[in-house]
Amino acid sequence: MKSVSRRKFLQISSATFAAAATIGPVNYLSKGSKLIADDKLQKGIHKIPTFCNLCFWKCGAIATVKDGTLWKIEGNPLDPLSNGRLCPRGTGGVGAYSDPTRLKYPLIRTGSRGSESWKIVTWDEALGFIADKLNKIKAEHGPEAVAFFAHGIGGNFMKHLFKAYGTPHIFAPSFAQCRGPREVGFELTFGDPIGSPERTDIENTKCMALIGSHLGENMHNSQVQELSKAIENGASIIVVDPRFSIIAGKAKFYLPVKPGTDIALLHAWANVMIKENLYDKDFVSNFGFGFEQFVAEVSQYTPEMAYTETGIEPQVIVDSARELARSKPASFIHPGRHVTWYGDDAQRSRAIALVNALLGNWYHKGAFFKPVKMQVPPYPYPEYPEASQPRADNPDRIYNWADEEEGLPTGIRDATITGKPYPIKSWVVYATNLMNALPNQEETQKAINNLDLMVTVDVIPSEIAGWSDVVLPESTYLERFDDLNISPFKIPFVGIRQPIVSSPDDQKPNYWIAKKLSEKLGLTNYFPWNNIEDYLKTRIESAGLSFAELKENGIILGSKKPIYIEDGLEYNFKTPSGKVEFYSPQLADKGLDPIPKYIKPDEPPAGFMRLLFGRVPVHTFGSTQSNPILRDMIDENEVWINNDIVRQNGLNNGDYIRLRNQDGVVSNKVKVKATERIRTDCVYMAHGFGHQSKALFNTYQKGASDSQLVTRYKTDKLMGGTGMNVNFVTIVREA
User: Fold this and answer.
1) What is the mean pLDDT of residues 45-71?
2) Is 2's pLDDT higher than 80?
3) What are the domain boundaries of the chain?
4) E-only strand ranges, 545-585
5) What is the mean pLDDT of the chain?
6) Long-range contact list for 730-733, CB < 8 A, 24+ apart?
7) What is the Rg, in whole angstroms, of the alpha carbon atoms belonging to the chain?
8) Is the pLDDT of residue 14 over 60?
9) What pLDDT was estimated at residue 114?
10) pLDDT value at residue 510
11) d(CA 265, CA 271)
12) Rounded distance, CA 116 to CA 461, Å?
C-alpha cells in the first residue's frame, strides 16, 4: 500500500460503495451506547455486574451506565479475585469501547496477504465465504487440515465449533509460549500443575522469592493486593532478576543474576539447605522420593561454584537460602507466569519446585494452597467426532509433556510450512495476535502464505488480521455474554459476563459467530440452545443455582472448603510414586535428566547484549496500546540500558536509538532509559509496543517491538515450549 497520513492509514474498497471506505478515527460514542438490559433504563445511573477481559485473571467487575453511556468500571466486592478493586487496566476498560481503531464490519481481503487491503461485506457473505472454504478443505484434506488458535474464555464457543468440525488442532499460545514449563515442572514434581490463577498464598507468606517474576509490573490483581498485605505484615522478599524491577525495591535481598544461570542458583540454595539441615526433614522423609539422588546431584553446586556462574556473592546465596528456610513452610519461590526463556524452562521450573519441596510448603498456608472449584456441569453437547489422523504439531509425541488440549503452535506452523506429516490448509485465529505471540515473524508469514484460508476474529485490527483473508469484528467484553467463569481459587465461585452496552457498529459476539457459522457448516446439532442465555441458564440451574441471582450479583460463592494442611487437608501427590519426586523416573525413562542439570547459557557476540522483555502495569500484551485511556498513561516503551553502556556509546537518557539483533533485524526507534538498575550484559523493554499494523493508527510504530527482534528460539525438550530470551541486540545510533 502507498504511504498515507497517520490519521488515515487503511483504505478499504467495498463492492457496495462507489468510493473507498476508511477505517480510521471515528467518534463511536456519537451513536450513543444503548443499554442492553432494558431500553427503558436509558436515563439515570445503572450498575451491571460482569467480569473483566483485560487479562486472564477475569476479575469480577461492576460497570456503571449513566444516561445510557458507559461511565466507569469498578471491582465487584463479592468477587474473590478482585475483592472490589480493579487494576489500572481493568478500570481503563471503558476505553476498549471507545477505541477509535476498532474493527467495525466484516472484511474480505482484496490485496496480497499482509497488505491490509480489504472490502467491506455483510456477515452472511463473510461466513458463507469461510464455510465454503472450510467445507472444501474438509472434503479434500480432512478436518485435521484446519487449526484453531484462541486466547481467553471468549474462545470457548469457537473452540467448541471446531471440535465439532472434527479437527484435533486447538491451540492456546499461553501454554507453549508462556506458562507451560512451570505446569510441567510442578506436575512432574508434585503431581499437580500450578494452574490459573496461581495457587500462591501470598497474603499469608512470611518469605517469598521471585525469580524473574515482576509483580507490580505484571499486574495480576489479587496477587498484587495480597503482596501489599504480606509486606504490611512484615514478610521478607527475595528478588532474583538481572533488572532491579519495581518489586526489587521492596526486597530484603536483591540478586542481580546473570541471565540463564537460574538452575545453578536454585541448586546452590538446595545445597545450603541440605548441608545446614535447614530443610523440612519430616516432609522429605515421609513424602519424598529419590531424595538421595537429588542430594548427590546438588552437592556439586556450592555457593562458590554458583558464584562463578551467576555472579551472586557466595554469602548472599547462603543468607538468602537461610531466609527462605527460616520461615518454612510459610515461605516459597513463586513459580512465575511467563517462563519460556532459555529452552530448559521445564527443568528450571522443576528446580524451583524442588526447592519448594525442601521447604515442605505444598498445601501450606503462606505458600501453596489447594485450589477449589464450583461444580457446574458442562452443557450436554453431543460427542465430538474422533480425528482420523494424529496431531501434526507434535508427531510421534517428540515432546512427551506437551499439553494436547493447548497444543504447540510452532509445531503446527512447521507442519503448515512443510506439509508434513500432512498438509495444514487453514488457520482460524481468535483474539490472539500470532504475529507477536510466536517467535520468528518470518516463519509465521511463510506458513500463512501456504494456507487456503486465514481467518481472524478480533476487536482491533492487529498484525495477524493484516495477513488474513477474512476479518470478523467481535463485540468487546462490555457488549456480550461469554461462558461462565468457574476458575479454581481459594473459595469456589461462578461469575457471569453480561452486556453493558450495545456494540456501536456491526460487531458480533463470539457465540453468535460460532452458532451462525455452525449453520453454514451443517453442525447445528452442536448448538441446540436457542440463545446464549438459554445456554447459561441450563448450566447454572443444572448446578442447583439461581440464574436470576447470578445476573443480579455477578457472582455466586460456594461453601468454603479446606485448602491448607492446617485446615485438615491431606496430601495427595498424583505422581507415579505417590510422592514428591526429587528424582523423576518418568524423565529417566524418556532419556531426559531425572534431576535438572545446569547448562551454561550462550554468550552474546562482541558488542551485543541479551534481549529481555516483560510488561507494564497498564497494558495487556500488545492488545491495549490503542485503548485511548491506557494509551494516555503509556504510549511507547523504552529500552533499559546500563549507564556504562550508554556512556560508551556516547548516548544520553531519552535519546532515540534502534536495536539490531544477531540476524540483522532492526527495530523501530526506541527511547533510551539509562539506568544503574540493569546488568551491563542485557537490555530490557516492555512487550507489545512498536505495532506494525497501519490500521492501529494511534499506536503505529510507537516504540519498538521485541517480537520483531525475537528471530531465534530454543525448544524445550520436555514440553515443546519456545525459549525466547536467547536473542542478542546491539545499539544502532539514530541519525
Assistant:
1) 94
2) no
3) 197-371+577-589, 609-733
4) 555-557, 580-581
5) 93
6) 730/607, 730/608, 730/609, 730/659, 730/660, 731/641, 731/645, 731/649, 731/651, 731/657, 731/658, 731/659, 732/657, 732/658, 732/659, 732/660, 732/666, 733/649, 733/651, 733/657
7) 26
8) no
9) 94
10) 98
11) 10
12) 9
Over the stretch 309-342, which tens digit does the pLDDT of each residue have? 999 999 999 999 999 999 999 999 999 999 999 9
Helix residue ranges per DSSP H, 470-554: 510-520, 532-542, 547-553
pLDDT, tens only, 156-204: 999 999 999 999 999 999 999 999 999 999 999 999 999 999 999 999 9
- The 10s digit of each residue's pLDDT in 660-669 is 999 999 999 9
Q: What angle do CA 416, 163, 131 make, to 5 degrees?
A: 70
How far apart are the C-alpha atoms of 12 and 643, rounded to whole Å? 47
Give the span between the Cα atoms of 60 and 63, in whole angstroms.
10
Q: Looking at the domain that runs over 197-371+577-589, which CATH code has it been given? A: 3.40.228.10
Q: Which CATH architecture has domain 609-733?
A: Beta Barrel (2.40)
Residues 6+ apart with CB under 8 A from 337: 178, 179, 182, 198, 213, 218, 220
Measured in degrees and rounded to the nearest 5, phi and psi for residue 141 equal -125, -10
Do 146 and 167 contact (CB within 8 A), yes or no?
A: yes
pLDDT of residue 735: 73
Q: How confident is the model at residue 453 (pLDDT cuts 50, 70, 90)?
A: very high
C-alpha to C-alpha distance for 305 and 268, rounded to whole angstroms:
8
In the predicted model, is pLDDT for residue 12 greater than 90? no
Q: How many CA atoms lie within 13 A of 592 on its CB side?
A: 20
* Beta carbons of 674 and 651 less than 8 angstroms apart: yes
CB 412 within 8 A of CB 424: yes
How large is the average pLDDT for residues 81-86? 96
Residues across the chain: 735
Cell of 441: 515473524
Q: Which residues pair with 66 in a beta bridge?
A: 45, 69
Bridge partners (DSSP) of residue 35 are 501
d(CA 717, CA 721): 8
* Cis previous bond, 499, omega within 30: no
Q: Write out pLDDT tens, residues 475-512.
A: 999 999 999 999 999 999 999 999 999 999 999 999 99
For residue 346, the one-letter residue type is A
Q: How far apart are CA 360 and CA 371, in angstroms?
A: 18
| 158, three cell numbers | 469457537
Model's pTM, two decimal places?
A: 0.94
Q: Which amino acid is at 36?
A: I
Phi, then psi, of 499 in degrees rounded to 5: -70, 140
Read off the pLDDT of each residue in 600-619 and give the average, rounded to a whole number: 96
Tell me: cis bond preceding 421? Omega within 30 of 0 counts: yes
Angle value at C-alpha 628, between 91 and 22, nearest 5 degrees: 140
d(Cα 263, Cα 527) in Å, to the nearest integer?
A: 49
C-alpha cell at 76: 465487584
32: left (phi over 0), alpha (psi -120 to 50) or beta: left
Q: Kind of pairing, strands 670-675 and 656-661?
A: antiparallel
Residue 682's nearest CA partner among 659, 652, 716 is 659
Q: How far is CA 686 from the centre of its chain?
A: 14
pLDDT, one tens digit per residue, over 89-128 is: 999 999 999 999 999 999 999 999 999 999 999 999 999 9
Cell 527495530 locates to 667
Quickly count: other Cβ atoms within 10 Å of residue 723's Cβ. Answer: 21
Q: How far is CA 654 from CA 422, 427, 646, 681, in A?
A: 51, 41, 11, 20
> Torsion angle of alpha carbons 152, 156, 161, 164, nearest 10°?
120
To 10 degrees, what angle do helices 262-275 and 345-358 make?
20
